Amino acid sequence: MGTSQITAPSRGPSPVPGDATPSSGVIHINFRHAAGFTVIGNHLAQHRGLSLAAIGLAAHIQSLPAGARISIKHLAERFPESETRIAAALRELEAHGYLHRSRVRLPDGRIITRTVSYNQPSTDASAVAAPQPRTRRSKPAAPQPPREAAPEPRPAPALTPQPQPQPLPQPAPVLVPAPTARTTPPPPLPQPQELTPGLQRAATALLADLRRHAPQLVLSESDIHALAPGVATWLEHDAHPDTIRHALTTDLPNPLKHPAKLLRHRITALLPPPLPGAQDIALTRPGVIVIPLQNCDRCDRAFRSRHPGHCRDCRSDLHTAA
User: Fold this and answer.
1) Exposed, middle or buried, 314 (CB in 10 Å: 0-12/13-18/19+)?
2) What is the pLDDT of residues 108-117, one digit of tens each?
């Protein structure tokens, strides 16, 4: 019982210097691939300027064979990400030099998108040389005994070269620039013929009241004063306030980022023409005389007449009383 255990260590063994197993973080267990693999550089896998979706998309594109279709719709069918997220990742790869897309017009008139993938951002497709096949070094041949010199052959008469037809030049593909955002200014906001204080007040009140019907349409005071002439033009064209409110608040996009720009577009694009009067209707229908409506001075009943006065019943009562 009193004998000490001299074989048991007094403390734990110290870590071996240069041990490959880290004390924290990721531990790699690597196997050597013999086939079916793609070499991805650390400049891409550890890129600090690319998102994780862009890095994964670049690795997927570099693993595909030449000629594979990598349009946004095909990638959206292959992965759970949306078309918007995939398009943003492709733009990231283009900005950092891992991808290049161009529109090319073929000789038959069709326009296609040509995509070039780079495993190094600084490489150029024209600078990459095709690999040359390796040739085995042949052993030096054994020395042959000298032979007698053969008689020199007589020179054959020179043949006159026949002119070869020149091949027709192939039409070069015409590069079509990618579509860009619209740079033309929007059409001007409609203006009323006379912006009276009453029209200004009614248009301002209608714009400020839109947020009760559509909470997305919260406008600032400057936006309301800028859009008020357009709404005043609608009111000047005899448009009912409910009609204006329905045209401005129906089928709003979700999410709505710029409510003032949307209202400016709808006020300008959906402006109705002014209501035609009786004279205009008579001119559009030759041979038809339109008699306007009048209100009876006695019973306030509507009747058609060229001049104001009394309706038929009131005129009969007046004649009877006389």
Assistant:
1) middle
2) 888 888 888 9
